[in-house]
């Protein structure tokens, strides 16, 4: 098996697994307000667009805001793309680490992988990336304080 084929195989293994919220996303305050049990936090997966529309409507009902299916679908697709862009570099780092050990389809992504991926390309975090990067650093207390990737 050539190197490119091995990476493709590893990425295919990870694509079959559900996308989870990244480290640094604090959902505790949001979850406490929720009346519904079926959240991304509890299921560890993004909801389908119909469920997302219903949840948004329930949250916005008091404010009189209606949510169209198109809006919920666009929001869900955008969130999925964002999370995939955020998670892909972590998976690639873990894949390179696993392949150097001779492992195939290992789905172990460490906080160090996430931290290194975000430090290597902080703009992937979007606007205000510096404060988001600081939150990531604080979420990894086991990393040395002088940990640098460059």
TrEMBL record:
Q: Which residues form a coiled coil?
A: none
InterPro entries attached here?
Hfi1/Tada1
Cite the CDD domains for this sequence: HFD_HFI1
GO terms assigned for molecular function: transcription coactivator activity
Gene Ontology process terms (BP): regulation of transcription by RNA polymerase II
Listed under GO cellular component are: SAGA complex
| Name of this chain's protein | Uncharacterized protein
């Amino acid at each position: 098996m050539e190197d490119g084929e091995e990476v493709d195989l590893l990425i295919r293994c990870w694509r079959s697994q559900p996308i989870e919220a990244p480290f640094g996303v604090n959902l505790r305050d949001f979850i406490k307000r929720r009346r519904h049990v079926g959240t991304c936090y509890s299921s560890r997966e993004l909801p389908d667009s119909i469920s997302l529309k219903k949840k948004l409507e329930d949250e916005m009902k008091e404010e009189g805001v209606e949510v169209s299916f198109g809006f919920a679908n666009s929001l869900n697709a955008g969130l999925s793309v964002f999370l995939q862009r955020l998670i892909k570099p972590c998976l690639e780092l873990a894949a390179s680490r696993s392949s150097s050990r001779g492992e195939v389809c290992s789905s172990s992504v460490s906080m160090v992988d996430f931290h290194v991926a975000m430090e290597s390309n902080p703009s992937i975090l979007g606007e205000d990336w510096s404060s988001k990067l600081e939150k990531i650093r604080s979420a990894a207390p086991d990393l040395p304080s002088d940990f640098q990737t460059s």
